[in-house]
Structure prediction request, 740 residues.
Amino acid sequence: MTLNVAVLVGSLRKGSYTRMLAQALAEVAPDTLKLSIVEIGDLPLYNEDLDGDAAPAAWTRFRSEVKAADAVMFLTPEYNRSVPGALKNAIDVGSRPYGGSSWSGRPGAVISCSPGGIGGFGANHHLRQSLVFLDVPVMQQPEAYLGGVNKFFDDQGKVTNEDTRKFLTTIMTTFAKWAETNRKR
Amino acid sequence: MTLNVAVLVGSLRKGSYTRMLAQALAEVAPDTLKLSIVEIGDLPLYNEDLDGDAAPAAWTRFRSEVKAADAVMFLTPEYNRSVPGALKNAIDVGSRPYGGSSWSGRPGAVISCSPGGIGGFGANHHLRQSLVFLDVPVMQQPEAYLGGVNKFFDDQGKVTNEDTRKFLTTIMTTFAKWAETNRKR
Amino acid sequence: MTLNVAVLVGSLRKGSYTRMLAQALAEVAPDTLKLSIVEIGDLPLYNEDLDGDAAPAAWTRFRSEVKAADAVMFLTPEYNRSVPGALKNAIDVGSRPYGGSSWSGRPGAVISCSPGGIGGFGANHHLRQSLVFLDVPVMQQPEAYLGGVNKFFDDQGKVTNEDTRKFLTTIMTTFAKWAETNRKR
Amino acid sequence: MTLNVAVLVGSLRKGSYTRMLAQALAEVAPDTLKLSIVEIGDLPLYNEDLDGDAAPAAWTRFRSEVKAADAVMFLTPEYNRSVPGALKNAIDVGSRPYGGSSWSGRPGAVISCSPGGIGGFGANHHLRQSLVFLDVPVMQQPEAYLGGVNKFFDDQGKVTNEDTRKFLTTIMTTFAKWAETNRKR
Prediction:
């Protein structure tokens, strides 16, 4: 049995390390997980006045894609010691309309990264606070604060360091168990 | 001497209580403060690829308005136990380009609100964490977690309860001193 | 099958509302859970110099009791917008010595309370941040920020309000499922 | 004019890096600041039943020393992604009895450290959340998340790396200005 995993990437720039990380994680994931990026860059800023039957098409598309997933992974850099606005906006869009959240009950993981040593700790835990409200049970260990992410990849986007590759593999193996244990039934 | 205060409103819907709060606070502010709302609803999601000389006009407009202010106030509801994506996006836009943050050194205040009793506590403190990085010295007391905000106003947007009005006045009086003490010189 | 639940109470005063809450939760818990308070008031402040073979008896007692449990519940007031020092100290004691944490893998719940309306939100989420590190999978919903806790009980410590009683029952019923799903195997 | 600075050290073990840091910071502080460690290791866990006229002598001693200070510095390792229980307990003791907080209005700084790369980020910001409530205006920049602290010192406790020494000097110089600007008058 395969679980579909919606992957959200918190950085919008094309060559982002976070997006490369999504690819790297997909490569080491066990066969029981199928990872697909759900795009967030075209979502208009959430405004309740626009929601409802005539909601922007991008919101509707996004909500459908999240609802179709069995599990969710959040990969994110840190902007100003917190979650990038673009990613938080996606979370807000997915949480509405009131009573119709797309997130509820889908098991999740949070992986933060940064070029510096702190590895996006602030973004990671702010995200976790939102996921309590959204009823997304989040894998606790291994925590993933990936520092020095700018040195992870070669020109083809392959992870060069063996220890890093092993850690990413451990993340995905553990998450597969977590998602299987906590998936909606 | 008058200090110009940039006011950011975290909710985009037209009839938002947070926006009414901005008006109410302006009315009780001492003469030494001039409050003006800086709009955030038209800011494209931050994407480093778009930044630089050809940055979106809305970003440039926003950055200029923040830079022209002597102090900043953040009024915000809570979305999913954190800062609304739209407001966080504005903070991100204002923090860039690298080395050219619009926020640095401007004294600030954070006021959160909600219809329920918790008063946006989660949004309030997540915002404060970002403001550490952005070097915005934030007024500590009075803390403002305004619960029951949906019952604050009459049809003309006037605050009906005398205690509430007094508390808003105390906030503004204390902030005037805070902003004067900590303004850039 | 019955799961043993270690209950930690964050307030040390005898007549504390948090302790009364422990009793009230035990009364509405399903038969599959057996709740027992693990005392924290006699634990010396954690100091690595004192740890090891000659560790204080209270530390050893505490660690044994947590290790004997299948699941853990943290009931706590908020002190200064965070976890009471006494409760955090207990968490620190249980997390050591290095490599021998008593917490790992035990499913948990966090319930915060306060006389005021905010219900210990700050303590609740600070605790959750520690529990990520400690590999305690924490129930996300229902969140429990119990405001007005000083009005919950009659002279015999019984919960007087029916809605409150129902909410406490829902907490325990949901936690029973959470603990069963995520218990160590 | 000299400001007295109460320094709290979050680790109780004798040879703690955090305590060595206190010494190192005192050495590079400008003449306008006089740093003194206020000990926290003998404070009984806070229990409201014990407070009042017959409060433990260690509490009374601690409260007097904090009240005698013009400013406060918190130096802390991270325990389980948050503030060590011993330090949080000291904060709680100083905040009481109700209405008689020892902290109010004293400008402060938070400096966290760890052997690893994250530098105590979690402890740092949890502490800051408490200091909002306690009305301690906290210096925002430079943020101090001191990673690799176990390699800072030689056998005599001297900071060996010139860049580290410069950063510690910048912290103290900036704090001197912050404390002067925001001290109680």
Observations:
- Chain C has a mean pLDDT of 97.
